[in-house]
Amino acid sequence: MKTRSQSVFGVRFAVAVIFAVVVAVAAAPASAGDPMVTDRPDFTESSSVVGVAVVQFEAGVTFVEAENGIETKTAGEVLVRWGVVERLEVRFGLPTYTWIDQSGDSSSGFADSVAGLKYQFADGVGRGFLGGVEAAVIASTTVPTGDAEFASPDWQPSAVLAVGWDFGPNLGLGVNLGVGRPADGDDRYTTLWASTALGFGVTDNLSVFIELFGFNREEARGPNTATFQAGVVYLLSPDLQLDFRAARRLTDRGADLLVGAGVSWRLGG
After folding, report:
1. For residue 190, how many other CB atoms are within 10 A of its CB?
2. Long-range contacts for 202-208 (Cβ within 8 Å, ≥24 apart)?
3. Is residue 24 within 8 Å of residue 142, measured between CB atoms?
4. Are 25 and 268 in contact (CB under 8 A)?
5. pLDDT confidence of 25, banded at 50, 70, 90?
6. Average model confidence (pLDDT) across the chain
7. Closest Cα partner for 167 from 124, 231, 211?
8. Dist. CA 31–CA 34, nearest whole Å
9. How confident is the model at residue 29 (pLDDT cuts 50, 70, 90)?
10. What percent of the chain has pLDDT over 90?
11. For 193, how many CA atoms within 13 A lie in the half-sphere containing its CB?
12. How would residue 14 be classed by pLDDT, with cut points 50, 70 and 90?
């Protein structure tokens, strides 16, 4: 069982990560001003990495009402992406605070932290459909730092292949294939997922996306799930972005309603 000291460690871990990356970026020379690409608000991870000596914070809040009447709210959802060398970023998912309400019975606490790496092995430079592909792999795992009701005592690894294409200045497609090995008590099971997101540029600062994603199972012996999601992204500046998203299940299990909003900002871009 998780103790309070582990939850406190998770918060201290979050503070230490933020401090370390800000100091590192402040001490390093700024990189070229590439367009900011985030891994939120869609489920599909981008195939891009942040530049060398760049740190990018992505955070948000989400409300989910499931088909069984359970309501879940999360706040934080902080992902820190740090470009350490060319084509490689270090990623930290800081502890997210979660509230669950089921028939008037509520609970709350911190979820586990996440640590990982993203490596971009194709940068999209080339001609034609296949020649212009951008691709990256993400390897990550949870770190047992959360509260007992919202965390696992086991490290839970996952891997994602993220592929993307730009079909012009205002149209892009992203595809993910993922695999994870979550723990279910003393046992583990394999979960697979796939997603595709299509983004449209409306103006220089405003874009919209539509997305489909699905799992073979999200829990041990659970059913297949599929979800449709759509959202908008607005750039307040080259280094500051706001987002909003909404989703609904396409299968018997999943979210009757999901809404979320967030902000992303970049240092050293």
Report:
1. 11
2. 202/170, 204/235, 205/234, 205/235, 205/236, 206/232, 206/233, 206/234, 206/235, 207/232, 207/233, 208/232, 208/233
3. no
4. yes
5. very low
6. 87
7. 124
8. 8
9. very low
10. 68
11. 24
12. low
More confident site: 12 or 174: 174
The residue extents of the domains of the chain are 4-267
| Mean pLDDT value of segment 118-128 | 79
Sign of CA pseudo-dihedral 188, 177, 38, 67: negative
**Mean pLDDT in residue range 186-194:** 92
Closest CA to 237 of 36, 40, 1: 36
Question: What's the half-sphere exposure (Cβ side, CA atoms, 13 Å) at 212?
Answer: 3
Q: What pLDDT was estimated at residue 149?
A: 81
pTM of the model: 0.86
Which CATH superfamily is 4-267 part of?
monomeric porin ompg (2.40.160.40)
- What is the predicted pLDDT for the residue at 87? 96
